[in-house]
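Appendix C: a fully annotated inverse folding record. The material below is reproduced so that readers can follow the format used throughout the book. The structure is listed first as tokens, followed by the designed sequence.
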């Protein structure tokens, strides 16, 4: 009789504490992988990762913020998947931001910017809230496939804002309008032409942030008698991010000294 009472008590206590359910991991599909920004002046590249998740369980799965391991071209980073409620057998889309330190992701970013397929792997453990407890799901692999980004380099527009002559030196002010989602340094020789003849030259280095305008001022000293004729500035530049990007930017600008 005492043994029966003990078993009955244990059964009652077990009923008071719900057993932890181990749900099946959601099915995950990579919807898009987008380059948002690559800025060597902040030291980071941002990529948007859009996923479609389907809950195979017979109950709603409330996912919590979950930090996952992301691998891009063999380099490891972290990605936080935001909280999301997944109804049973109903797809839901979510978007997460993958931030890549440029110093650690040079190879991966060079591959993406060049348009080459790049291996992307996302794995780890999701966290779900079931009743009063947090339940881990996994670890498992959410994504393991090649990705590419849609990127085509557009040469920045150069504008000669001002030419002035001060104490035997020409001062050139150049404006750079960068339409790209990536920043870079513009480097290379800039020549002052008068009447089609080069009379002065300087090496430019202008920082150009993603999707913005910037200015740089150059001092060029005359190398001979300037003569007469149209005043032009010939820019033979290269847009460069070391190890990632190198594109020629060659333009001929019209101007007049003041």
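Designed amino acids, in order:
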């Amino acid at each position: 009789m005492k043994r029966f009472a003990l078993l009955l008590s244990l059964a009652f206590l077990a009923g008071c504490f719900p057993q932890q359910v181990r749900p099946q991991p959601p099915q995950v599909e990579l919807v898009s992988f987008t380059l948002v920004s690559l800025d060597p002046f902040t030291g980071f590249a941002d990529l948007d990762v859009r996923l479609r998740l389907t809950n195979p369980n017979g109950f709603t799965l409330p996912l919590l913020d979950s930090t996952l391991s992301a691998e891009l071209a063999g380099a490891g980073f972290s990605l936080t998947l935001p909280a999301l409620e997944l109804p049973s057998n109903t797809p839901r889309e979510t978007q997460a931001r993958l931030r890549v330190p440029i110093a650690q992701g040079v190879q991966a970013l060079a591959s993406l910017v060049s348009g080459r397929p790049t291996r992307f792997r996302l794995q780890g453990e999701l966290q779900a809230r079931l009743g009063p407890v947090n339940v881990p799901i996994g670890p498992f692999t959410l994504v393991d496939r090649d990705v590419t980004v849609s990127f085509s380099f557009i040469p920045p527009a150069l504008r000669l804002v001002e030419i002035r002559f001060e104490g035997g030196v020409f001062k050139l002010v150049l404006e750079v309008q960068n339409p790209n989602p990536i920043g870079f340094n513009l480097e290379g020789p800039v020549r002052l032409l008068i009447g089609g003849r080069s009379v002065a030259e300087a090496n430019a280095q202008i920082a150009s942030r993603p999707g913005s305008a910037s200015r740089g001022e150059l001092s060029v000293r005359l190398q001979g008698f300037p003569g007469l004729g149209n005043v032009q500035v010939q820019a033979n530049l290269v847009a460069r991010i070391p190890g990632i990007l190198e594109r020629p930017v060659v333009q001929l600008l019209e101007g007049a000294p003041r």
